Prior knowledge:
alpha/beta, Rossmann fold, 2 domains, six-stranded mixed β-sheet, elongated, binds zinc ion
Amino acid sequence: MSDSPAQAQDLLDRALESGRIHSSYLLAGPSEVVRDAALGFARGLVCIGDGPKPCNACRECMRSKPSEEPVDLDGSGKSGPLYRHIGDHPDLYWVDKGRDGTRVRIGQIRATQKALRFGANEGGYRVAVVADAEWLNHEAQNSLLKLLEEPPDRTCLVLASASSAPLVATIRSRCQKVRFPDSNSGDLRSGDLSEDRAIVLSRFDCIRGNTLPDLLDWAEEYRGSRAKAAEQVEVMLDIGSSWLSEQIKICVSEQQHVVRAQLDAHKTLSQCRKDLVQRNANPQMVAERALLAVRKSVA
Ligand SMILES: [Zn+2]
């Protein structure tokens, strides 16, 4: 169990690092957060690079890089495929309810099951992510259970669910549960977050998995007209500061050196805001400095 999103992510990172992988995971928490975490974990399982996984640099990571506009799935198979690959990696499968779907359907689970047993295998892990798992209907859950009971060798199943409650107990008990909490952390996560803010927040929740090029890419999104970019960077700094405060609260009792690093990062973000607002600094440069400071503080 985990008390914070950061701890939940840490649990997955440590599994990747140690290579001790369960045959199935249930990630429960805010939809975008658990989808991202499941994606990173699946990609990490086939990554062959050094250091934190996914490294985003090795051959496997190149293949598993998610496409910017992934094809929409359709559980009935009429308007889209039942599942897709992550990027174009032959060993990584992704299932969700699709844009218009109201259910993850049994046909999707069966098709994925078949692909897992008979599909290509590049020698490493085969991974299937079932996102929107709270929308698995009863039939589909039963079908999934068979897979959980007799997992093929070197296969990992990752369920990403807004809540574990809609899943039958027999599924829950077979999975390693990783909870990404979303409501016990004070102001940052309670109340109505706009979509933009929620997206930035979920990215900070995953910042541990970001490499330097990831962060530079992120900062590069704040290019273009200054007024708009500056406004977006202000939002990012705002969320980043609250996120750091949350992290500080979490580990204030146990790891003093981490707190020190996070306090420093917090100070850097205040300085960044000043530079942005009062000194007319370049938003992208400010964003780079802020993101690197936050990433360093959670290393
Ligand atoms: Zn890699």
